[in-house]
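pasting for the record
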Amino acid sequence: MAKAKRIKGIKCKSVASAGIKLVLVTRFEELYGFHETALDWSDPEGVHSMRVASRRLRSALRDFTPYLRKRALSGALKELKDIADALGEVRDQDVAIMALEKIVHHAPADLSPALQQFIGAKREVRDRAREELKATLEQTELKQLQSAFNASVDEATATRDHTKPQITYQEMSRVVILGRLKELEKLSVGLFQPFEIETLHDMRIAAKRLRYAIELFQQCWRRSIAGYAKRTARLQTALGDVHDCDVWMESVGKEILSARKQKQPERVAAMMWLLSYLVKLRTKHLRDALARWCEWEKQDVSGKLREILAVEREKSATV
């Protein structure tokens, strides 16, 4: 996965609209830059990199929504969501296949044929998702979408009333980071309700959004906040592993019901073993996520991040 580009030309003390425009245009360039490698099926990292680029772009759009004329971007937003969905379908199958290929080595030899058959079915699903991704990227015509998107950004960020004071890019970044942090804290209850799958999933998304926000805005803070992005990323990874297990367990459960209905005992046995393995794996990842959050609270990571943002804001006000 390629790292996000550093946004050049950002003036943190200037009006937010100028920085927003630079960010969105740059993030779309990143997305466009991966469109060829995403269709290279020999390396699944191409799809992953383009998917992450789409996430970063959409996360920035979400962060900037209060400061944009959203209607100007409505057409582009729909097409960007279609691209993100198509990329997600392929990437999700890639991740599942790679994980299953590792898991199968731990299985009893007599269960291997049924497990390999299950992996083969996943490959067929991925092949169809790849064709859909290819069609989506061809139909979207990314170069034209890029031009339309840039024009929409110009309209969405245009300042019409110059008499009103405008929020600075740095102050906006503080508001966004604090908002994302608050979301994460609120959703952390999911860790204490381990079978509330949706809440845990929402917490993972909140961690991702906080991480992206910190990475995007860190250049505007004299005291580095990059370390907070790394800590958030580790929490996000653990929660993502839990979510993957939840998705796979649901799929395996359906396989078991289908195999029972069709009276296929070998397939039932293989899927039962796989479900048991995934339950243990989920528990391991959940313990990891819980440990990371306990450490987060013990070290008052949220409080320290808030303190940095508050102190630097006061310094900026006196400059």
